[in-house]
Amino acid sequence: MQIRASELILNTDGSIYHLNLLPKDIATTIITVGDPDRVSDVSQHFDSIDLVKGKREFLTHTGMLNGKRLSVISTGIGTDNIDIVLNELDALVNIDFTTRRVNKNRIRLKLVRIGTSGAIQPEIPIDSFLMSEHAIGFDGLSHFYEHSFTKHTDLEDAFIAHTQWATKKARPYIVDFDSDLAAAFMDNRIRLGFTATNTGFYGPQGRELRLAPSQTGSMSKMASFAHDNKQITNLEMETSGIYLLSKLLDHQAVSLNCILANRATGEFSKNPEAAVQELIQLALTKLTSA
């Protein structure tokens, strides 16, 4: 079936609408970062850079490192942006832009998020690294796609009961990382975690400036949740969307988090740039040595 122009939107140069990329522009191993300024923090380590393109908050660098072609792309903040980025990256490798038909031979991307995060358990140190083994999403993205994820229904139900989750909110959903890709990043410097993906930075994460959150004590309830030897370790804003769409589109994904804040102890990193740079270098070493 041919995909209509209103559904697969291309720019006048034939590039995908938001990312401004052509199929030849990306590698099959892609690092995602939230901040456009962090793209160059990653690509500065490449042996060569053969593509630099950007549009809106989406900046892409593609190059070579240790004989391996890599792309790094900024997603901006939030799972709404992840919905755009993941669908368009998939279209770049799995849809023929000339015929507007899905390719018979599908390409499977390796997606590695390198991001920052805040821990909610006091024992997780500032400037440490965490790989999200599971992600629980509060964003509602999963409700807009047909799927049959039922692996963690009991865990979702336990979380809803423990936190007294408001029925007017979207039902939380839990998705896992790709265990095969994660194996490449196993290291004594990286702990495994259960990450909560929030829909915002302030109220959705229990912060109060001039507006009070709708559910008081939500962070303490989340931190005290424990079920089947699992508890929420950290908060951020993209991982569940990346894991969800990667599963649905049959790509591999892991999320690496640099813990810059600890909400339980009130600490924040004294040198966040150095901590993030250390995670970037570790991730690149792991990616290019596998």
UniProtKB/TrEMBL annotation:
InterPro entries associated with the record: Nucleoside_phosphorylase_d, Nucleoside_phosphorylase_sf
Domain Nucleoside phosphorylase: 29-282
Enzyme Commission number(s) from the entry: 2.4.2.3
Name of the protein in question: Uridine phosphorylase
Record PANTHER family: FI09636P-RELATED (PTHR43691:SF11), URIDINE PHOSPHORYLASE (PTHR43691)
Signal sequence bounds: none
Originating species: Maribacter chungangensis
Pfam families to which the protein is assigned, alphabetical: PNP_UDP_1
Reaction(s) catalysed (UniProt annotation): uridine + phosphate = alpha-D-ribose 1-phosphate + uracil
Lineage per the UniProt record: Bacteria, Pseudomonadati, Bacteroidota, Flavobacteriia, Flavobacteriales
